[in-house]
Amino acid sequence: MKPTKAQTARQFDRMSHAYASSSVHAAGEDLAILLEYVRPHAAMRVLDIATGAGHTAAAIAPSVAQVVAIDIAPSMLARTAELAAARGLTNVATELMDVEAMRFADRSFDVVTCRIAPHHFHDIDQAIREVARVLCDDGAFVVEDSVVPDDPALDRFFNEIEAIRDPTHVRSLTVTQWMAKLRAAGLEPVASTNCPKAHDVADWIARAGLDAEGAARVYAAFAAAPEPAVARFALRFEDARAVSYTDDKVIIRAEKRPAG
Fold it and tell me: How is the chain split into domains, by residue range?
């Protein structure tokens, strides 16, 4: 059953400090590629949606005029403000807002960014339409998210284990699905990069705030992984217990097509 938005907000409020200290979110090759895809310049106004603890917003801010960071979890915005203050950034603003119903005028931003969050969106198509609406006519959406293989069994394995670990997980898409959804909203993908990302399973579980029973369910799901999933996600075990896995992130730059 799909989580409510209130449940999603509560989960990320509860775990905001874990995300603030997460090395997976704070750095990495994927963040460097995303920044390259933004093509920042000094006059640029950027919107970072589902900003989480603000790592992307803070990375972009030194190179642009302004970053507005939005999230539905107040504690995540508090972490974003703390990070901006710690780095001496005065051009980062935060607003409590749902990406599927943004309170911004049409054509308000040069670039919209979103990093490792869309798999939590309740209505991904509506979220992308809102992104397209608030983008300037020559603007771009630079998005990164976990993606699943085209194989239905591997898709199911990955999405099911994500939902066991965090019930606010809605769905990770395939790359093909991402491209189709962007085009349907009037955003044309012009560049994309696949970026594998390794995860320490214990850290990944801890970041979701699972109790011992919940963690045991995740470990049991990994232990029951079929051989194709073990190979595809580079599952590594020690004493029959999963210790690491690797998933794929896709990073896409999609540019807004002229109306008409």
Answer: 5-149+168-198+247-256
Question: Rounded CA gap, 87 and 83, in Å?
Answer: 6
Q: How far apart are the first and last CA of the chain?
A: 39
The SS3 assignment for 118 reads helix
Token pair of 231 as six digits: 């190979």
Question: Which pLDDT tens digit goes with each residue over 48-77?
Answer: 999 998 999 999 999 999 999 999 999 999
The residue among 79, 81, 140 whose CA lies nearest residue 109 is 140
With 80 as the cut, is the pLDDT of residue 260 above it? no
Q: Are strands 45-48 and 66-71 parallel, antiparallel or unpaired?
A: parallel
In CATH terms, 5-149+168-198+247-256 corresponds, of 3.40.50.720, 3.40.50.150, 1.10.1160.10, 2.40.50.180, to 3.40.50.150
78 contacts 19 by C-beta, under 8 angstroms? no
Global pTM?
A: 0.94
What's the Cα-to-Cα distance from 9 to each of 14, 25, 97, 130, 214, rounded to whole Å?
A: 9, 18, 11, 19, 20
CA 244, CA 78: separation in Å to the nearest integer? 31
Output the CA angle 41-47-52, nearest 5 degrees.
120
3-class secondary-structure state, position 237: strand
Q: HSE on the CB side for 214, CA within 13 Å?
A: 15
